[in-house]
Specification:
An eight-stranded mixed β-sheet has the order 1-2-3-4-5-6-8-7, sandwiched between helices. By secondary structure, the chain is α+β, with helices and mostly antiparallel strands. The protein is built from six helices and eight strands, in the order ββαααβββαβαββα.
């Protein structure tokens, strides 16, 4: 198995593939309510079959060069992930996303993992614009967008219905030249 170390704290970024469906389901079960506050991931992964189907859908996206999914492991346990929900290399655009179970918050894991993923998208796949769509009330995810050097483009008012409540969605983005400049500064 290959992976990328995310630092000195035994955190690793690895592909999240269909053969990990049981591990993925156990991870979602540990954080179901926390993860589900702002995303539909916890609803999409309800049992082993749906876990496998979700992972298979991203394996198919990866094969089509249209997205990718990676897990974050801490001390050998899957605790979250980052993804390119969409990726259009012809247009040079992608939408990044993330999630984390509650026991792994406030360690910088998502920021470090997203940096690796965005670096890959920009430098290896030629992506020019990476978007981050986030519920306006999801302050930790907005903080990640800021740490990644993204700028807030705007708000889609009440555009996302989640558990019977409408949420504003903020659109954040970083362009390849800004990304590269920010990486040189750090």
């Amino acid at each position: 198995m290959y992976g990328i170390s995310l630092g000195d704290d035994a955190a690793w970024l690895r592909p999240l593939e269909p053969w990990r469906a049981e591990e993925f389901l156990a991870h979602i079960d540990r954080g179901r309510e926390f993860i589900g506050r702002f995303t539909g991931l916890s609803d999409a992964v309800a049992d082993l079959a749906s876990s496998r189907a979700f992972l298979l859908s991203y394996a198919e996206k990866a094969a089509a060069d249209a997205g990718t999914l990676h897990g974050i492991w801490l001390d050998g346990t899957l605790v979250g992930g980052v993804m390119l929900r969409t990726m259009d290399t012809a247009q040079g655009t992608a939408e990044a996303g993330c999630w984390l179970e509650p026991g792994a918050v406030s360690r910088g894991l998502v920021t470090r993992a997203a940096r690796v993923l965005i670096d890959w998208a920009v430098e290896e796949r030629g992506i020019h614009r990476v978007e981050w769509q986030v519920a306006a009330a999801n302050e930790p995810s907005i903080a990640v967008a800021r740490r990644l050097g993204m700028r807030r483009d705007g708000v889609l008012r009440e555009s996302y219905l989640r558990r019977g409540k409408r949420h504003d969605i903020e659109i954040w983005s970083v362009l390849a030249p800004q990304w590269r400049a920010g990486r040189r500064e750090s």
